[in-house]
Amino acid sequence: MKKILLLPLILLSINLFAQNNNSFIWEEDGLECTTITAGKLATVDGSVITSHSDDSHRGRTNIWVEPAADHAKGEMQKMHIRLWDKDVPGKMQRYKLVEVGEIPQVDHTFQFLNTAYPCLNEKQLAIGESTIGGHPELKSDSGMIECQRLCMLILQRCSTARQAIRMTDEVLKKYGWRDAGEVLTIADKNEVWHLEIYGPGKGRVGALWVAQRVPDDHIAVNANASTIHEIDLKNKDYFMASDNIYSLAEEFGWYDRKKDKKFDFAYVYAPESRTKIACRRREWRVFDLLAPSLKLDPNSENYPFSVKPDTLVSVADLVRVFKDYYEGTEYDMRKNITVTDKEGKTVISPMANPFMKGDELRMHKVNGGWNALGERSIAVHFTVYATIIQCRANMPDEVGALCWFALDNVASSIYVPIYGNATDLPETYKTDGRETGFSKDAAWWAFNRLGNLTCQRWGDFHKVVDKVWNPMQQEFFDKQKDIEKQALELLKSGDRKGAIQILTNFTNDCGNRAVDKAWETGDMIWTKFDGWW
Fold first, then answer.
1. Which of 152, 354, 431, 524 is the most buried (most CB within 10 A)?
2. Does residue 399 fall inside a structural domain?
């Protein structure tokens, strides 16, 4: 009888927790995402690179191939915006898509990889993203196009970065930007640009934007703060901007061309973004890892838009950067969570983890978060997926377009190769784990579970995970060369279908192996280390 009475109380408690768990997990709904770019003379193999960690903690988890298509005259493309969906007890928080209008479709759309923020098309055009925010007065609900939909339109319709920027200007003038300030890092096989976009002001249709090209021998980063400062629109090879770039600032009183000595875009349109340590520290860390000889100050308010790396950058280097959580620096959020080891030395506790939730940060008196002094590392527990994308002019599009794709916290995950011209992906990658709830049908859950388990005793468990992923990651890099050589030979012989099939097979084999190993490693940690946490 007691058990019967207890059951409703348990269910009630679970229901109340589900309804109020926002404060438990997400004490601050801050900005998210980091994107790093590299020009073709800054990389070991001549790749142009863009990247993205989608740290939204609420976006969809799946990826699929959206095939190329021909469209009938008069066909329309629906536009949607994302809104918070209502909380449903026992279900994960998520966005819902709300249709806000439609625009004319073009005659032909290219194949692309459909992630939450579509990331790569068959023509080697790639996109990374990071939210900036900007002055709230700029945001307009009168437009039709938000960030994810713009990424889709770019990849459907464009083949170069400059074409993408020009198309963006055209569609936003006509249909309007309906989002906060965003940066898109747009790469093709020859160059990469950072495109910052903001609204035109409440009640208006249009947009404000500026774009700066990364020099070919440089790397750049955006970590949720505007990084474009002084601009030279006469230098069309490096700068582009909307027609209203000066007039809008003058209208709102943020700039006076008669009184102000210079026009600093970041401080005119997104000054608050430059105040956040959680943004600036990531900028410093990326540059310090790849260009340590510069000895940049970790507490600076501003850094160069781009820098020349000390050595040429590889995909493996960027994997290392995206896994970083300030280990070995004074900004490691575990540094004061210490114990005395067997030798009497004070060391970081193996129970301390760099991915503490809000309540854990408060409990340990760690200032992590989005406020002025809060830390936020590059790797975070709320990453949904991450990409490192290679665009390669020395290879045909079938082979050159390559997305390295990781699920969940990059620090406990692995990047698998997905070619932009692959015809299909494993079912588990195409399945949205946010819709299924915990399930082996969705690849994301394998990595999410493993990441959460690893955090329970990070000091010990991350070594176990690294021992699994590091050799497999290197194996994927090594096999990539052989697979691409075979594909190039088939293309040379005229067998395009055969070449794409080899790349598709490699994509699916790596993806399936990684998911299986993630489940296996999670099971092993759960079993072997029972009682360790």
1. 354
2. no
CB count in 10 Å sphere of residue 442: 24
**Position 115 in a domain:** yes
- Cα separation, 437 vs 375, in Å, equals 30
- Copy the structure tokens of residue 20: 């109020």
**Per-residue tokens: 498:** 């055969």
pLDDT at residue number 4? 40
Angle among Cα 184, 473, 289 to the nearest 5 degrees reads 55
pLDDT tens per residue, range 64-98: 999 999 999 999 999 999 998 888 888 888 889 99
Q: Give the pLDDT of residue 27.
A: 41
The residues of the chain scoring below 50 in pLDDT are 1-29
144-150-155-156 Cα dihedral, nearest 10 degrees: 0
> In terms of DSSP bridges, do strands 338-340 and 306-307 run parallel, antiparallel, or are they unpaired?
unpaired
CB atoms within 10 A of CB 370: 18
CA distance 4 to 452: 33
pLDDT at 523: 98
Domain that holds residue 223: 32-322
Sequential DSSP letters for 395-439: S-HHHH-EEEEEES-GGG---EEEETT-S---HHHHS-HHHH-S-
**Total domain count for the chain?**
1
397 Cβ neighbours under 8 A, 6+ residues apart: 122, 123, 124, 420, 421
Q: Provide DSSP, 313-329.
A: B-HHHHHHHHT---TTS
